[in-house]
Amino acid sequence: MTLATRNAHDENRSHRFSVALEPWLYLSPALLIITSVLIVPLIIGISYSFRKFSAFRSEYVGLEQYRTMLTDDVLHGAIINTLWWTGGSLFFQFFLGLGLALLLNRPFHGRKLVQGLVFLPWAVPTFLTGLTWTWLFNPVIGPLPHIFYAIGLQAEPVTILANPETAMWGPIIANIWFGIPFFAITLLAARKSIPSELYEAASIDGASAWQQFTKVTLPFLAPTIAITVMLRTVWIATFADLIYVMTAGGPAGSTNTIATYIYVSAFKALDKGYASAVAVLLLALLIVYALIVIQMRRALMKDK
Amino acid sequence: MQNALYTIGLYGAVFLYLAFALMPIYWTIKISVTPENLLYSEGIRLWPSRATLANYASVLRATDFPRYFTNSMIISITTALIVTAVASLAGYALSRFEFHGKTWVSLVLLLTQTFPLVMVIPPIFRIMSQLGLTDNLYGLIIIYTAFNIAFATFLMQSFFDGVPRDLEEAAMIDGCTRVMALRRIILPLTLPGMGATVAFVFTAAWSELLFALMLINSDSQKTFSVGLLTFIGKFAVDWGQMMAASVMALIPVCIFFLFLQRYLVTGLTAGAVKG
Amino acid sequence: MASVTLRSVTKAFGTVKVLSGIDLTIEDGEFVVLVGPSGCGKSTLLRTIAGLEEVTDGEIIIGDRQVNNVAPKDRDIAMVFQSYALYPHMDVAKNMGFSLLLRKEKPEAIGRRIEEASGTLGLGALLQRLPKQLSGGQRQRVAMGRAIVRDPKVFLFDEPLSNLDAKLRAQMRTEIKALHQSLKTTSIYVTHDQIEAMTMASRIVVMHDGIVQQVGPPLELYDRPVNVFVAGFIGSPTMNFLAGVAEVKGGPGVRLDDGTLLPVTGELALHEGQMVTVGLRPEHIQFSTKGLAAEVLVVEPLGMSTQVTLNILGDRLTMIAMDRPKIAPGDPVKLTVEAANVHVFERGTGRRIGNKPN
Predict the structure, then answer these.
(1) What is the pLDDT of residues B239-262, one digit of tens each?
(2) Cys staple from C300: which of A171, C59, C307, C337, with CB 3.0 to 4.6 Å?
(3) The pTM is what?
């Protein structure tokens, strides 16, 4: 190559390089922060699960922590609680949220105001949600025990949080209260994006309201439903704040979920290794779950 | 006849939802204005016979809450601003550029949204104590920033997606570099979106409990959430004061949220459907 | 004012080749139209000239400067977008003056240039308005004003009239052409509308699948299309195509599937038995007493002319008659075409069959 063409060649190469580099420059602050503050600790956390921690030192123990998990009854109880917690919260949140979304889709007086007010629970800090509902269940200052007693749900007005049989419902109800707006907002937005011509065509074809719902609304909402349900499930499953504030995992471990168990193990019992192992279990379960949902969504999209 | 039934059903359902949503908040407010001596006797009335602001006054004057409030404010506002700035850049990159590894970046961001945060508590605690960042506000700001970047980026990305590409292309032909085009043309158009992101991150940071609980010990550094929680355990419970403190915890959030609610509908769907 | 030269310009997105070895020279002051169906690469080509896309290979030369590595803002070009891309938060005057502001021109100079441009385009009354307060046609003019004010070496137009209604489009076509005649700036104009191409271009570049099919003045492309694609793309209503086999001995002519022999000029380089496609422009088909047998399907009187759709050998044929033929749907008719007006193309490649070499 002559000098001229080599210079042009180099110029081309450096130009191309800076063009390829450009997006990464914009991404770098975000990636840097996430990697250093989240990814690195995540990896470290996974490595902790192979160690045992005591007062001042830690030793490598291979899979021992995982083996301990297999015989840990508290953990097994926590897994069952987690399923109740996640399933119960999700079921009611979702359907009530869907109902609210469909309701808000119809015109009525004061709809804008109602819409703003009804979304307020999502804005309330979660610790406050927990505290408030704890107080609502408290017979001294809250109305609920008295209402439950009055309608016969309880033998006497006490807080449901003190009874291992009923304690789990406390955080679940609080979570439902907190989570309805999430589904209502996302499903409402998705519902609004369905072109009205589809409904007009359906009603001309003679479809009833129910048929319109199942044949037009649901298929269109399906992808949104899949994603929101998946996201919310993951958030609920890992949500320790609310339960911790209301019951700290008690009474007698009846409200202990995997998430609170991890928090308590790591913090109180000082065995970070075990906590990390349990956390890895939770992470694995969530990844499997997410993959299942993603596959389901792909299948749904193909059908369309 | 059908019309009347329908209307009754509609408004009835609306009323039920509204009552359910507002009742807890209303109740908190009600207790917060109930004078102490009436608390037990009038526990379940709908409104105290004599309302008072004494609880608020004592919270503001006699407790550490003003300090907790300030701490939370500082942390939340700082986090919100940093996150929005960083997420804007990242969201812009994801919106405008096609490049190798783009899917990976989106996946990594999604990952940070979905893994149990509790999982990183032990290592983060260890790292933070080694860096001397426990028991002060900076540590929390760093952590909250990291947690919120992913979602904020998705939000900003969808807001940028709503701005046509031709605008910055026209600006680049007119004489701007891409950065100048971003600053002068695109950002002014995404201001509402950025406002919504700031509001969202503020709310998330304001609400956080576990990390604050773990990292902060001294009273002077406590956030509102931790302060409220530890307050309960301390004395014979002064319900009125605690409710007053809770109501005050709600105010900044509600203000921001009223602003944010409109834009969240668009932002959340775009982020959610994209998955 | 400058020429634009493209040498072997290639653009690939991953493994998909959008532009393949484009060679083109656009002379200083020309108005060249890049035309083709969606996806042919014309917009991509325009954007590589603008610097909004990188080329995978090849050179782009504006004037005498290779600009491959030069940022759009330094190429001294102006572009009018299909969506106008007006800055929504600035009024018309600021939109037009933005580029000059960036160049740090003096306010008086900026004001003067805006005044000149808005005068030419009739925007004087709209200078304080925001884009959302303007109609489509007005926005279009502001977009052009923004380009004019810069006094660039090259104007680039990316389907600027696509979003306007038919009447406005016809009006703007004339205005743009008049503007070019007064400013004489080199202009490259992209459109999928062959009418715009025919009426506005000094030369047309027909593109298909990322390759230049033919370059030339409008009438040259109309009269001597170099392949079936160009023949079918240029001209409205579209040219009619019929399959046939060449006969040199009895003709010369093309034997159509129904047995009719269509005479062609003797200069064509045909082989006996060659498989060909015959192209007939609607205005060249005439009614006669003997020739192709056809059946009238639809008669559409346009006033100045009459468009007749006919059925021949199972195919549709479109014909334009300048008189007002007394026919009705269902009538059997016979058609001829003058031999000189018959275009013949190779059946496989679609290439035009030219004259025999001397």
Answers:
(1) 777 788 888 888 888 777 776 666
(2) C307
(3) 0.80
